[in-house]
Amino acid sequence: MEAVEEVVIVGAGIAGLATAVALKKIGVRALVLERSEGLRATGAALTLFPNAWVALHALGVAHRLTSLYAPLKRGYITNVRNGAIQEVSMAGTDRGGAGPSSVHRKALLEALAEELPIDTLRFSSKLNHIEAQKQEGSSIAVLHMEDGTIIKAKVLIGCDGVHSVVASWLGLGAPVYSGRSAARGLAVFPEGHGLKHEIQQFVDVGKKGGFMPLNDKELYWFITCKSTSKGEDLAGNPELIQRKVIDNFAKDFPPIYLDIIRHSDLSTLTWAPLMFRFPWDVILGNSCKGTITVAGDAMHPMTPDLGQGGCSSLEDAVVLGRHIGESFIRYRRLVPRDAAKAIKSYVKERRWRVAGLITGSYISGWVQQDGSGWWMKFFRDVIFYWLLYHRKMDVIRYDCGKLPDY
């Protein structure tokens, strides 16, 4: 069986769905291929910073979430060793009508998916390999699916995660292990948790944990820690993850944190190695060839220390939609040669932004978790929290722009 599509997006995560929504808003239909049987909500929740809300407003879906999740006004970082507490105010960071908010990942995915025609999403569709064929002065992608189907696409966008088939075909350097892993989950208190709507983080040598309320009954929690292995024995074993966090990784954390872990919905618990792509691979590598490119984690996997993984994926979608939209509106159709120029412009606009996020995330994790010597303490408390913090504010105030009128 052979099919022809204007645009094919591989992966129905945040980047894939958001890109499909962006293209729909400028008049381009995309087919989204997802290898899973349904929407994947791995990670349970995420924090959307102001730059993400700007993107969501551009996509026309922000209103679906702002009524459900209240913005976080402040946070606290506690040094587990000495009890010192650093307050972080989020006042004045609002952009796009909303400040930083923690939301259910599933709610975000559903809000994006509901904007798309029902025939846009095709589940249980695994991509085996890609070819390129010349057409109209450029190249088109030929996708060979596991079920034997062949799909030809004028534009191919890989949003297929850290271990992206599309990124590998483009020749991007493989992501590397950061030396840290993370556990995440949702804690549920049927009678209410009674905690303030604030972010709480706890930092110790080699580890960082925290929690943030989603609503009056649910909290999202996480912990990252240094590890010599990727913890394959923990993946897919929520009871073991919970036990390891309580008895080992977070044993010195405050009792309130441990109580939250005990209230976890085990079905939401995950363990994963923290991977990232070297920033110079993003800057100098091939993030596009002709009308084939990548977005989200397929382009720029990063550690979670700035909370920008999902946020930057939403930015990608708007920027990609803007560049392709300008080409589509100019010709009233997708012209492969011009679409290739649009995609090249998208990569040029994004590569320095996301390379900076990868670098900033890695440094942030290193500073907050590594070393207990006086020089590291000085660097962390004097330089990082007081000077580099303002740089983080610039990161989350970023405006990715709007989509062109169709």
From TrEMBL:
Similarity comment: Belongs to the 3-hydroxybenzoate 6-hydroxylase family.
Domain FAD-binding: 6-327
Top-level division of the source organism's lineage: Eukaryota
Organism: Nyssa sinensis
Entry protein name: FAD-binding domain-containing protein
Family annotation (InterPro entries): FAD-bd, FAD/NAD-bd_sf, MOase
Keywords, sorted A to Z: Monooxygenase, Oxidoreductase
Oxidoreductase as UniProt keyword: yes
Chaperone as UniProt keyword: no
Pfam family, one: FAD_binding_3
Coiled coil feature spans: none
Gene Ontology MF terms in the entry: FAD binding; monooxygenase activity
